[in-house]
Amino acid sequence: MGMVGTVGLVLHPQRDSRKAIDTILRWAGDKGATVIGLPDEVGRIDCTAVAVDTATLVDRADLLVGLGGDGTMLRTMRLIAGRPTPILGVNLGKLGFLAEIDVDELADTLSAIDAHAYTIEPRMAIRCSVSGVDVTAFNDIALVRIPGDGLAAVSVTPAGSPFVRYAADAVIVATSTGSTAYSFSAGGPIVSPRVEAVLVVAAAAHSSFNRALVLPADEDVTLHVLPTSGRLAVEVDGAVVAHLCPGESVTVTAWPGAAKVVRLGTTFYERARRKLRVGGSAEAD
């Protein structure tokens, strides 16, 4: 018996997902499976997917399919965080790090998953509480300066031991997944998602010490906004969720294995080389 009785859909808000959805519906019809999705997403497309609320989507889906790019995959991972449900990413546009296949490969991939012919790549998340709200990120949580409000002056305390004070445009706490996102643009290292590590990276640091920290997943890290800092935006996977003022702080903790991403043969290094256009020094040729 196949493993997929119910396919859950998570759609990009703008990209055309008609071909992908039609493929999923045809596959599900042949298998006697059900396709479900969120009302505001499947409702804008004339299709036979069943509209359900978020809780039902999470509870009923045997497989979640994110149709879009990395942003859609991050949202899908946050929806299902902490559950064993596998997540398949389908590219609708430019190549991403998290999506595994293109639309033309979708039917065969669904059959492979149904036959248990796939592997799982666990993805770690990070969490914190800010302004009384618990938030989860699979890329990063960043304290970011607001233009005109001064620099982000932030002290970094891993495992209860004060280590460094940064004055920067932003201080980013990233997962290994997020090492190729904001952290990378700020000069942080590329880290395989198989490594359960927490990165702390300052963007455009105004100090002689501008190195990234790499912390183990079992150590919390506290970011404290110093008196000399401006008001800071708190970004979770790129979205502003709150603001912090001098004297306030957040403590970020790791959540290993929070999401299960489907893999069918591609490697992280292949995806990273393509996405980042990694070549090398001409001197090495």
Q: Can you characterise this structure?
A:
This protein has seven helices and 18 strands. The model has no long low-confidence stretch (mean pLDDT 93). It is an alpha/beta fold and 285 residues long. The longest helix is centred in the first third of the chain and has 14 residues. Strands 1, 2, 3, 4, 5, 6, 7, 8, 10, 11, 15 and 18 form a twelve-stranded mixed beta sheet that branches. Strands 14-13-12-9-16-17 form a six-stranded antiparallel beta sheet. Helix 1 runs parallel beside helix 5. It folds into two domains: 134 residues, Rossmann fold (3-Layer(aba) Sandwich); 132 residues, Probable inorganic polyphosphate/atp-NAD kinase, domain 2 (Tumour Suppressor Smad4, Sandwich), CATH 2.60.200. The radius of gyration is 20 Å and the shape is globular. It is 20% helix and 38% strand.
Helix content: 10-25%
Do you know the CATH topology of the largest domain?
A: Rossmann fold
* Count of strand segments: 18
Distance between the termini: 53 Å
The description of the largest β-sheet is: 12 strands, mixed
Number of domains: 2
